[in-house]
Write a structure and sequence with these properties.
By secondary structure, the chain is an alpha/beta fold. Helices cover about 35% and strands about 25% of the residues. The mean pLDDT is about 95.
């Protein structure tokens, strides 16, 4: 079983004074990044895509869901600032589902999830990070996450 943790693609600059920051769309670079994510993940055994409700997250996985003919499920438990226990519960449910799952979230949530998995024995291969449009690939053996690898989408 594989869970892909996708950080949303580029969406311009945050404006903490803007109450509508959740509606911030992808910028032109982000649109291209989302297309590359879809290309990189097409061909895997993905059966579900789950996202933070932030527009930049749902837009990041939109090309992938379109290619796979899947709906994007939305959960507040992947939104920025979500307590780790809630996000971890989403990750564990995804890992125990049939088929591979994509979770799209933010730059504070994903490192916490990876750190917790490492603390529970997951081996990280290669470099770590959480750049926009990056993907963590986590392998689950039915009991725990055994390995994780970090990558950015391949350039065309």
């Amino acid at each position: 079983m594989t869970v892909f943790l996708v950080r949303h693609a580029s969406a311009g600059h945050r404006n903490d004074a803007d109450p509508d920051d959740a509606d911030r769309p992808l910028d032109p670079d982000g649109v291209e990044q989302s297309r590359r994510i879809a290309k990189a993940l097409t061909g895997t055994a993905i059966t579900r895509v789950v996202s933070s409700p932030a527009a930049r997250c749902t837009a990041t996985v939109a090309p992938l869901t379109a290619k796979l003919g899947l709906d994007c499920e939305v959960t507040d438990d992947l939104y920025e600032g979500t307590p780790i226990e809630r996000s971890w519960a989403v990750l564990e449910r995804a890992a125990r589902a049939k088929g591979d799952v994509v979770l799209c979230s933010h730059g504070d949530v994903i490192p916490e999830l990876v750190s917790r998995a490492q603390g529970r024995g997951m081996e990280v291969r290669g470099k770590s990070g959480c750049a926009k449009a990056s993907v963590w690939t986590l392998q689950f053996d039915g009991e725990r996450f055994t390995s994780g690898s970090y990558s950015k989408p391949a350039a065309d």
